[in-house]
């Protein structure tokens, strides 16, 4: 049977059992008295397993002494309690088979020394062999699973909303267009460029910037739904918090208002933080040791405190009084820039905050107009070091108001007629939010750049692979 290194460390294997391990070499040390220690990882957990290879093994001289970092091997041996103090278990090797050599160890891009993030982004196909990306991969997986699990337990339905769409629901400045191209007969223009058909079988179409609107249609029948998938934004922003392809969890709930959704957003984040602290002990410890000395403080504080809620109006008052030299001047009605967000969460509050009731002019058309006719029932969750990680609102459920908002925002009423239908036929108050998955990961792990939190980052700078 194939056993993972995690199975061993979780005590699922008996002492003196003969087992086989498949993995890659993290390090090799040879002792003078004629045996070698090999550290093996297989991704299943942070820990490696140490294997002791005696020189009596037939391929000791011909192969074992030539093994380098990154070689893949299968080893069979007896599980014993370690004589050393560094680990509980080790394997006394009976047989070792080399599955793959490193063709030139001097050229292997992943060495034992610490690599910079920038360097690792240049080798996205190999960077998961480092401890750092291994840690991030396991934590990312655990949080993804726990988000689904929370919603499953609360009886939300997962709706896979479309990736190809004709709508620009967030009023994004630019989107990725979907074109069709017959690869068997590529049409070439006079100047040699390819003549793409900029449509999807005759219809103009784009990669989605949000699954919200289609999720709303399901909320208006299934009551509690969510969508969780890749989101595409043709962002030119070369920042540490923007990706052109990222993941978003979007929850949509019928018979629900702004306050309900604020409470839910706080609950779900607390839920995943609790489980990450509980279940990813070794991985979090690595982050504490190498990335962020404040990780335990930050997460425990998040769990034990209630997030501050504050109206947009009061935020502007705070910013005005701050006497900071912002490069964008502060005025009532302005959109918050990252410098303002930073001042608020990093310096003024020094904690996460929820800002609500923004002016309608700076928010999307679908947000519910408040009684003042000026602000909308919107909310954003801002956290230190990152800024906005989550945004949501109560949706406009009144057909007349929605239609006049569509006109005000110069949106094509025909394109949105199906969306207005939801208000025409048995409309209900409903609300929802979108949580940026990589930004949540950034907050939890303390890793600053979202490019290091997604396996293959797509953004202005990085190569595609
Ligand atoms: O604030 P946004 O644009 O909201 C929506 O798309 C709504 N439809 C959500 C909803 O109510 N269902 O995006 C939501 C979140 C942001 O708070 C941010 O965390 C993340 O998505 N986000 C990005 N993350 C990485 N790279 C980008 N370019 C991002 N743009 C937004
Ligand atoms: Mg937003």
Textual characterization of the structure:
The protein has 465 residues and is α+β, with helices and mostly antiparallel strands. It has two domains: 5-108, Beta Barrel (OB fold (Dihydrolipoamide Acetyltransferase, E2P)), CATH 2.40.50; 129-167 and 209-452, Bira Bifunctional Protein, Domain 2 (BirA Bifunctional Protein, domain 2), CATH 3.30.930. Helices cover 29% and strands 23% of the residues. It contains twelve helices and 15 strands. It has helices at residues 5-9, 117-121, 131-153, 212-222, 258-279, 281-290, 295-304, 312-321, 338-348, 399-408, 417-424, 437-445, and strands spanning 18-31, 35-41, 49-54, 72-81, 89-100, 157-158, 164-165, 206-207, 224-232, 245-254, 308-311, 353-359, 375-383, 387-394, 430-436. The strands form three sheets. It has an eight-stranded mixed beta sheet, with helices on both faces. Strands 1-2-3-5-4 form a five-stranded mixed barrel. A two-stranded antiparallel sheet has the order 7-8. Helix 5 crosses helix 7 (295-304). The longest helix is centred in the N-terminal third of the chain and has 23 residues, at 131-153. The radius of gyration is 27 Å and the shape is globular. It starts with a helix and ends in a 20-residue tail after the last helix. The model has no long low-confidence stretch (mean pLDDT 95). It binds 4-amino-1,4-dioxobutan-2-aminium adenosine-5'-monophosphate (4AD) and magnesium ion.
Helix content: 25-40%
Q: Whole-Å distance between the termini? A: 35 Å
Q: What is the CATH topology classification name of the largest domain?
A: BirA Bifunctional Protein, domain 2
What is the total number of structural domains? 2
Structural class, by secondary structure, is alpha+beta
What overall geometry do the principal axes of the alpha carbons give?
globular
Number of helices: 12
The total strand number stands at: 15
């Amino acid at each position: 049977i194939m056993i993972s290194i995690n199975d061993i460390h979780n005590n699922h294997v008996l002492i003196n059992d003969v087992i086989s391990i498949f993995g890659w070499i993290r390090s090799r040390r040879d002792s003078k008295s004629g045996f070698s220690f090999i550290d093996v990882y297989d991704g299943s957990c942070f820990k490696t397993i140490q294997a002791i290879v005696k020189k009596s093994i037939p391929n000791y001289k011909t192969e074992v002494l030539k093994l380098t970092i990154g070689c893949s091997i299968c080893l069979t041996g007896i599980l014993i309690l370690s004589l050393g103090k560094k680990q509980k278990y080790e394997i006394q090797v009976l047989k070792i088979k080399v599955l793959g050599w490193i063709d030139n160890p001097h050229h292997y891009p992943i060495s034992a020394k610490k690599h910079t993030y920038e360097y690792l982004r240049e080798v996205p196909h190999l960077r998961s062999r480092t401890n750092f990306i291994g840690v991030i991969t396991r934590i990312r997986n655990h949080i993804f699973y726990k988000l689904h699990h929370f919603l499953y337990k609360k009886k939300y339905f997962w709706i896979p909303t479309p990736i190809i769409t004709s709508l620009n629901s967030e009023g994004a400045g630019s989107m990725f267009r979907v074109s069709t191209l017959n690869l068997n007969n590529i049409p070439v223009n006079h100047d040699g460029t390819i003549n793409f058909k900029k449509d999807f079988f005759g219809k103009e179409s784009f990669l989605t910037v949000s699954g919200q609107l289609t999720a709303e249609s399901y909320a208006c029948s299934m009551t509690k739904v969510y969508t969780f998938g890749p989101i595409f934004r043709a962002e030119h922003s070369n920042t540490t918090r923007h990706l052109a392809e990222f993941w978003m969890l979007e929850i949509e709930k019928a018979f629900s208002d702004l306050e309900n959704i604020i409470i839910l957003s706080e609950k779900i984040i607390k839920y995943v933080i609790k489980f990450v602290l509980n279940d990813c002990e070794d991985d979090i410890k690595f982050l504490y040791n190498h990335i962020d000395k404040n990780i335990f403080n930050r997460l425990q504080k998040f769990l034990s405190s209630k997030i501050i809620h504050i109206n947009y109006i009061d935020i502007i008052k705070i910013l005005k009084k701050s006497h900071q030299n912002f490069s964008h001047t502060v005025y009532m009605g302005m959109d918050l820039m990252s410098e303002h967000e930073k001042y608020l969460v990093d310096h003024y509050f020094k904690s996460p905050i929820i800002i609500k009731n923004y002016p309608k002019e700076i928010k999307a058309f679908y947000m519910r107009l408040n009684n003042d006719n000026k602000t909308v029932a919107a909310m954003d969750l801002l956290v230190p070091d990152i800024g906005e990680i989550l945004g949501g609102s109560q949706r406009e459920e009144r057909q007349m108001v929605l239609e006049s908002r569509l006109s005000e925002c110069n949106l094509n009423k025909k394109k949105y007629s199906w969306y207005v239908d939801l208000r025409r036929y048995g409309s209900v108050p409903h609300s929802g939010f979108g949580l940026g998955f990589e930004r949540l990961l950034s907050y939890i792990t303390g890793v600053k750049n979202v490019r290091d939190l997604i396996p293959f980052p797509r953004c202005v700078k990085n190569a595609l692979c």
